[in-house]
Amino acid sequence: MAQRAAQQEIRQLRITIGALREQMEQARYEKDRAVQAAVAKSNSEIAQLKAAVQALRDKLEDQRIANEKSAQAKVRDLSGEIAQMKGTAAALRERIEQISAQSAQRIDDLEKAHRDEIRHLHGTIAALRERLEAAPAPVRGTRASKVPAKTSSGPGPGPGRSGA
Questions:
Q1: Is the dihedral of CA 50, 54, 60, 64 positive or negative?
Q2: Nearest 5°: CA angle at 14, between 11 and 16?
Q3: What pTM, to 2 d.p., does this model score?
Q4: Closest CA to 149 of 161, 141, 120
Q5: Which site in 26, 45, 47, 158 is 20 to 30 Å from 8, CA atoms measured?
Q6: What does 72-118 look like in DSSP terms, one character per residue?
Q7: Domain residue ranges of the chain, discontinuous segments joined by +
Q8: List of residues 6+ apart from 131 with CB closer than 8 A
Q9: Residues 43-83: tens digit of each pLDDT
């Protein structure tokens, strides 16, 4: 009986060992399955993060290109504006030079007219002086001495005057 009890106990222990092995294999299987699920989940998250990073890179590149195009357009607009302002400045400079040349010519013309008028007046004065010196001296008390001599009021000799 003791042997029988020992055999039963051995059989029970073998059944227990088999059950424990099965539980261990089941636990190992569950653990492997959990690890595989975690790895798959991590791989999925990594793929999503990579896609998000790539999308952000693409968006950043698109923004950089848009900014570059905008800057180029601004430079082009400003270059056109600068060219227009340079043209305006050149036109104004040319107009100033024209006005300056016209003013210088006008001043020269006025100075020449002034010199001509002075020359004419000197000639008139000289002619009147000669006439005055050539005329007999008026006698005091006569009417001729009381009348003042006429002078020229404009350029050129008048009637009865010589032009020098």
A1: positive
A2: 110
A3: 0.43
A4: 161
A5: 26
A6: HHHHHHHHHHHHHHHHHHHHHHHHHHHHHHHHHHHHHHHHHHHHHHH
A7: 8-131
A8: 161, 162
A9: 999 999 999 999 999 999 999 999 999 999 999 999 999 99
